[in-house]
Amino acid sequence: MIHTDKEKYTEVLSTSLAYLENIGFENIKADAEGYETPKSYLQKGSDINITPDIVAEKEGRKHYFELSLKSDKTRLLKSKWLFLNTLSAMRSARFKIITTRGHYKFTNEMLEAINLTDKKLIKL
Questions:
Q1: Angle between helices 74-90 and 104-113 (to 10 degrees)
Q2: Domain of life of the organism in this record (predicted)?
């Protein structure tokens, strides 16, 4: 989810956080009220700040979660996903995408465009 869309989708974020807590994730960090904010990454040479939507741990392994919701800024979203996918591969972590009803087609098209079709979606 892009920073500008955060206010519009706070309910989806809280639903996702509750889901992750229920299936056993610990040390959950999210850009939401009551949670610690995850580490942000600054793109070199620009003022773009990339922050994962949710970072959590399960069985000693770190997981990065992104909420896939329809957005007008698809290019920024694609670059964010590619960065988080690369970051998770470098750190032996996992990168997963959470989506909800009404956003499945958008998410699949985005994943195909950046050649991440091997990602399994978490559908809420």
A1: 70
A2: Bacteria
Boundaries of every domain in the chain: 3-123
Query: 83: exposed, middle or buried (C-beta count within 10 Å: 0-12, 13-18, 19+)?
Result: middle
CA distance 76 to 31: 18
Helical spans, DSSP H, in the chain = 10-22, 74-90, 104-113
Which value, in Å, is the radius of gyration of the alpha carbons in the chain?
Answer: 14
Query: What CATH number is given for 3-123 in this structure?
Result: 3.40.1350
Q: Residue 37, Cα to own-chain centre: how many angstroms?
A: 13
Question: What is d(CA 95, CA 66) in angstroms, rounded to the nearest whole number?
Answer: 8
Q: How many CB atoms lie within 10 A of CB 81?
A: 21
pTM: 0.91
Instruction: Give tens-digit pLDDT for 86-113.
Output: 999 999 999 999 999 999 999 999 999 9
Query: 77 with 69: CB under 8 angstroms?
Result: no
